[in-house]
Write a structure and sequence with these properties.
alpha/beta; elongated; 17 helices; about 40% helix; Rossmann fold; 6-stranded parallel sheet; about 375 residues; about 15% strand
Amino acid sequence: MTRTGACAGLRVLDLTQLLPGAVTTLILADLGADVLKVERPGEGDYMRWVPPVAGEMGAMFAAANRNKRSMTLDLKTPAGQDVLRRLAADADVLIEGFRPGVADRLGAGFNELSALNPRLVYCSLSGYGQTGPYARRPGHDLNYLAAAGITALTGAAGEAPALVGPQIADVWGGGITAAVAVLVGLLERGSTGRGRFLDVSMLDGSTLGLVNHLSAWLGAGVAYEPGGLPLNGGHANYGIYRAKDGYVTIADYEEKFWRRTCAVIGRPGLVDSHQTREAEETLREVFATKTRAEWEELLGAEDSCFMPVLTPEEAADSDHFAARGLTIQVGAGRQLATPVTRFGDGAHTPAPALGAHTDEVLTGLGLDPAVLRAEGAV
């Protein structure tokens, strides 16, 4: 690996599939960790083949698995389980994404591996957690957000809840939460000398997004009201409005910003009526008269909480993305950075082909790759 950073020298075993675990180990790999992705022989992580495919792998897989190595290993075989134990004995971190109980059945559970390596920080990343009535349910992002109470927040007054575009539970609730948990586990190990078991749930990690809404219920007994709260449609000065060629947003929560916006759009009389539907209708009429670029020219330079609604493609090609290094060069193409990519250094290596490092890893363990292939272990 060519990356360096705060995680340089850490050996990470990634037994997960799909996006959540890949995001966790991507963050560590961007910071210099040596991440070994352990995949099933033949098919590997099936995110490899999710379209659109660019070259020999799916674009999403490529973006989430740069700076990593890959080996194949059949954990259902005794020889494959023995190889994993050898790897875990010298690892700093292991992350798995099986349903509760599966890792134990494969000989890859925390108790067994921790007995071999007491310093191992072991992260189990699942949808609903290792305990609780939902623990053994299968699920995906939408299910976790629904169970967390977040999906209900997406609907306007009188309308059904809406699908959220990005995978919030997978990426933020799962991947980023698990990365933070792993780093906390490593920090604790620095004091105690011992690793620990981390039970990370995508539902659990997503619930912090309710800090505004559930605080009202838990602290004051005030229930969520669709379309009735200041930040979910109840106030005209915090909303989305159609322009001539798309949409724009204003979020003038503070009176000083709202006052300036009202002055610039020529409606100073709205300052004291931001909670009314009349003000909302006026804003709809006003914003529909100009394009996003025209509103950007008027409000973007002022002290107003204004932004046009950009498509992901427009955002990726914006001057701000460029200035902040939010896209990076990996091989011949661009990829999205993580929030901490800039804290590492060095060139990025493209995501590995399936099993590209199998022989290298086995040889490093003193094992014969040909023998293990004959046994069906790799």
